[in-house]
Design a protein that fits this description.
The radius of gyration is 19 Å and the shape is globular. It is mostly helical. It has a two-stranded antiparallel ribbon. It has helices at residues 2-9, 27-40, 44-52, 57-61, 63-85, 91-106, 121-131, 146-164, 181-203; strands at residues 173-174, 177-178.
Length: 204
Amino acid sequence: NAVAHAFTTLPTGGFSPENRSLEAFAPATQWVTVVFMILAGMSFALLFRAFVRRRPRALLRDEEARLYLVILGVVSLLLTIELWREDVLRGEEAVRASVFQVVSMTTTTGYASIDFVGWPALALMILVGAMFVGGSAGSTGGSVKVVRHLMLGKAIRRELRQTVHPEAVMPLRLNGAVVDERTIRAITTFILLYVGLFAVGAAV
C-alpha cells in the first residue's frame, strides 16, 4: 500500500488499491498524503532549486508558488466553514476532510478521504471550482494551471488600469520577466476554450 500510494501521489495519478481510496487509512496517513500532493502540484524545477540546490527562498519568491499556496489555504478554509455551518463534520475531521479534498481536486490527483457525494451543494461547488485551478506549470497536475490564472488576473488588472490611463505602457511580468503579448492572448484563448468545452460537455 505504501509503495502503491507513493507512486500515485507524486505523479498526481490518484490510483489506489483500496476501494475506498484514502478513506481506508488513518488520519496521520491522510495528512502525509496531503503534504506530498501539495509538493507534487508545484513546479518540479522550482522544487529542484529549493531542495537539491538548497535555495528554499525560491519557493517564497516565485509568484505562481505563492498564489498556489494561497488558493489552497483560502479554498480549504471556505470549505471547512461550510462543513461546520451545515453541521456535516466537526473539529479536526472537518479540517482534514476539507484540506484533503481541496488539495486532491486542485492538483487533479483524485484521491478521496471521505464520501463527499452527500455534501451540501455549496461544498460541491467549491470542489468543482478547485478542479479548475490545477497544479503549477512544470508539475504533473492537470487542468488550467495556476500560472495561467495568475497571468489572466494580471491582464484583467492591466485592462482596468488602462481604462483610466489609456496612454500608459504596462508590460506584464512574471517573476520580473516580461511576458510576450502573444503568450497572454494564447492563455486567454486556452482558458476560454477550456471552460467552454467543460460547459458544453456538462450540458451534453
